[in-house]
Automatic annotation (TrEMBL):
Its EC number is 1.14.12.17. In the C-terminal section; belongs to the flavoprotein pyridine nucleotide cytochrome reductase family. It is an enzyme of class 1 (oxidoreductase). Keywords: 2Fe-2S, Iron, Iron-sulfur, Metal-binding, NAD, NADP. Residues 26-38 have a biased composition (Basic and acidic residues). Residues 236-336 form the FAD-binding FR-type domain. Residues 96-229 form the Globin domain. This is nitric oxide dioxygenase. Residues 1-102 are annotated as: Disordered.
């Protein structure tokens, strides 16, 4: 198979028949360095129903009748099977076609689910054998990276017939890939290998299935490529940021403040990717722990976790003067300033970081809205930011802060809110470990807050935190 004109043989077996050709990539963006997909540390994310963080994913590009591919894009590998033919398309597929493709793709995903690990191993083996020049661009350790690729695929596949959600997700993904130096030419190469790997392990792989995947990837990658190209006109691919203070609050938690080398626009409640100088190409997500400040400084709360490369480096190694890199801001767990509804905020552990930013955001607007914060931690000692929050409470009568520690509470954090309330008219914000988010959403729905008013970090992303 050939994807986007880069010409690698994707499937290890002969083509299912017919002409196998993926349309040529539209080279919307300029060549850039190639970087591997990063992984996550203490990721936070987005809001509501859907995650838009920059998950790992490389996809074949979109067919196009616009400018022909640059030299090199047409290169083929000797002996490669003829690539599949897919009609050119510049927009998202028609709903019917998308649904049919979505059904085929979901079937493949279900088939490969039990052997997902083998699929990803096979995919990376194909990729690095066929495109060895890409290997140095991925992190040395590929463990979390592997999971992220599959997750991104699952998310894209799951929403294939939900154009609005998919496009939003993919645009973020495309923008997020800029910091890796992703080049449009890499998408076809990766797409070929991905489809090659899927075709090896899907039980029911045929021409129609392959065509569905090709159509999906060409569409997916073009959305990403276009979003990256548009973003290139208005923002850097990454920011360098110098550590200005490093405050070890507990043996494992540091509050790290950095000064970006150029203005860094973001909204309270959002998060970014962080790469340390000690582990190149390994990126982890952290929320901004403050609303945007006049001095431009950014603060993160980092907990060192077992085998966490980035988190351990940030907590135990980083010192003032060190320079880290930041990706673009993302996430939509932000304050809706069009309403003055009360805000019920639950922050567990370092998940309190974006909650504090939200509180500061409300304070800065001078809004008269009730904000109720429940701050959960294992012990009193783990309430490392309680003084800051109590300080905010002191100056703002609309703010109430309650600490809930596992040691003392009969009820864990989410259930503690049942003791208070009523909360029906409140917007809810949840940030913390995946288990807390899950039980928190359950508790909030249970007390009558509609799902549309519950914003939280993506559980999928949190589960991938790992590091
Ligand atoms: N550092 C950051 O910027 C952000 C981090 N996060 C996430 O927050 C988490 C923080 O980890 P830790 O500080 O170690 O938190 P932790 O594991 O110590 O948990 C903090 C509190 O959350 C509640 N909780 C935990 N698991 C629960 C469950 N299954 N059901 C109900 N309540 C539960 C408990 O009250 C607990 O004391 C990480 O998963 C991280 O990825 C989320 C957003 C931002």
């Amino acid at each position: 198979m050939r994807v986007g004109g880069c010409g690698a043989s994707a499937t290890g077996r002969p083509p299912a028949g017919g002409s196998r050709h993926l349309p040529r990539r539209r080279c919307a963006d300029r060549p850039r360095d190639v970087r591997g997909e990063g992984t996550m540390d203490a990721p936070t994310t987005t809001s509501g129903e859907y995650d838009t963080s920059d998950g790992g994913g490389w996809f074949a590009s979109h067919p196009s009748s616009s400018p022909p591919p640059r030299g090199g894009d047409q290169e083929t590998h000797a002996g490669a099977p003829a690539p599949p033919h897919v009609p050119e398309r510049r927009t998202m597929p028609a709903p019917g076609a998308a649904s049919a493709d979505a059904a085929r793709i979901r079937r493949t995903m279900a088939e490969i689910g039990p052997v997902a690990d083998k699929v990803t191993s096979y995919f990376y083996a194909l990729l690095f054998v066929r495109h060895p020049e890409l290997r140095p661009l991925f992190p040395a350790a590929m463990d979390v990276q592997r999971d992220r690729l599959l997750k991104a695929l699952l998310i894209a596949a799951e929403h294939l017939d939900n154009t609005a959600v998919l496009v939003d997700y993919l645009k973020n993904l495309g923008r997020g890939h800029r910091k890796y130096g992703t080049h449009a030419a890499h998408y076809p190469a990766v797409g070929e290998c991905l489809i090659g790997a899927l075709s090896q392990y899907a039980a029911d792989w045929n021409r129609e299935t392959e065509a569905a995947w090709v159509r999906a990837y060409t569409t997916i990658s073009q959305v990403m490529i276009d979003a990256a190209a548009a973003d290139e006109l208005r923002a850097p691919a990454w920011w360098q940021a110098e550590v200005v203070t490093h405050d070890l609050r507990t043996p494992d938690v540091a509050v790290v403040t950095v000064r970006p080398d150029q203005p860094y626009p973001f909204l309270a409640g959002q998060y970014t990717s962080v790469e340390t100088p000690w582990w190149p190409r390994v990126w982890r997500h952290y929320s901004f722990a403050s609303a945007p400040r006049a001095d431009g400084l950014l603060t993160f709360h980092v907990k060192a976790v077992t085998a966490g490369w980035v988190s351990r480096a940030l907590v135990h190694r980083a010192r003032p003067g060190d320079v880290i890199r930041l990706g673009p801001p993302t996430g939509s767990m932000t304050v809706d300033h069009t309403t003055d509804s009360g805000m019920l905020c639950l922050g567990g552990g370092t998940g309190i970081a974006p909650i504090k930013a939200l509180v500061e955001d409300v304070a800065e607007r001078g809004a008269r809205r009730q904000v109720e914060v429940f701050y959960g931690a294992r012990t009193d000692h783990d309430l490392y930011d309680i003084d800051t929050l109590l300080g905010l409470q002191q100056g703002n009568p609309w703010l109430s802060v309650r600490a809930v520690t596992d040691q003392q509470a009969r009820l864990r954090l989410p259930d503690a809110i049942r003791v208070y309330g009523p909360w029906k008219e409140f917007d809810a914000y949840l940030s913390g470990p995946p288990g807390m988010i899950r039980s928190g959403v359950h508790a909030l729905r249970d007390i009558g807050i509609p799902p549309g008013r519950i914003r939280h970090d993506s559980v999928e992303e949190l589960l991938l935190a790992g590091d």
